[in-house]
Amino acid sequence: MKPLYIANWKMNMSFGNSVNFCLNNLKQLQILTNNAEIVLCPSFIALAPMIEILKNSSIKIGAQNCSHYESGSYTGEISAQSLAEIGVTYCFVGHSERRIYFGETTDVIIEKANLLLQNNIQPIICIGETQEHFKTKATLTVLKEQLNPILENISATNMRLIIAYEPIWSIGNGIIPENSYLEEVFAWIRKIIGSHAPDYTPQLLYGGSVNEKNIAQLKKIARIDGFLIGNASTHFEQFFSIITHY
Ligand code: PEP
Q1: Ligand 1 pocket check: which of 126, 209, 227, 243 to mutate, most ligand atoms within 8 Å of Cβ?
Q2: Centroid of ligand 1 to alpha carbon of 83 (angstroms)
Q3: I need a surface site. Which of 68, 117, 214, 223 has the fewest CB within 10 A?
Q4: Stretch 64-74: mean pLDDT, rounded?
Q5: What does the alpha-carbon distance between residue 53 and residue 180 come to, in Å, rounded to a whole number?
Q6: Is the CB of 208 under 6 A from ligand 1?
Q7: Which has the minimum average pLDDT: 8-12, 64-68, 157-161, 170-174?
Q8: Residue 158: what pLDDT?
Q9: Distance from the alpha carbon of residue 48 to the mean position of ligand 1, in angstroms
Q10: How big is the CA angle at 64 (ends 212 and 173), to the nearest 5 degrees?
């Protein structure tokens, strides 16, 4: 399995910037896919044009969100079916910014994940604890509360499970956890998946302030299958350095 690098552009890249990122770096992006699986997640309106630009490449395109309704009168929403129809193959669920700013609950996350799976879109399930949880050593309890109901209620046929562990206290601020802490958390997540959903093949990603300076340290961690990268992924040179650091 190639390491997986997922770029979360959030609302930080405009439509024009997103399209230009692909047009300007198409060849190099394609070369990167020899040794890595790369998923770019722009905002909704850039999805279709980016899919068109990258159609002859191995770069995958992911959405940052989808509706938890299948279809219907839900003004402003975008369904998993529509995403699939334009060629989206990945989508985040449970990102901390959706949980915090848009009230995304575990039930909603499960509904979204199942709709995505029904439409052959791979959910990228994000979990992570707050600083308060971290300080009070409640991380594993919180992750268990976030993860178990999802593992028990999703029905995937492809059996690929992508979990991005993103401590909320390390997102967007340049702070990353100690390697020993991440090793403990990742081992524990693998154990939980092994006991609750043994048929799945998990791919575990770390996300939170990954950049070209700290990637050497992060890549020393055993058994991380890839990275979810926010801010640094909006600068091609930084994204490139992160992926090509061996
Ligand atoms: C994120 O929010 O998914 C993320 C990883 O952001 P950043 O890399 O900017 O901390």
Answers
A1: 209
A2: 23
A3: 223
A4: 98
A5: 41
A6: yes
A7: 157-161
A8: 80
A9: 23
A10: 35
Residue 226 Cα to ligand 1 middle (Å): 13
Record the tokens describing residue 2, joined without a space. Answer: 């190639």
Short-list 149, 156, 68, CA closest to 112: 68
**Can you tell me which atom of ligand 1 is nearest the CA of 172?**
10
14 HSE (CA, 13 A, CB side) = 3
pLDDT at 159 over 90: no
Query: Per the structure block, which two tokens stand in for 185?
Result: 């958390």
> Residue of the nearest CA to atom 8 in ligand 1?
230
> What was the pLDDT predicted at 155?
87
| Ligand 1 contact via 176 beta carbon (within 6 Å) | no
Tens-place pLDDT, residues 215-224: 999 999 988 9
What is the value of pTM for the model shown? 0.97
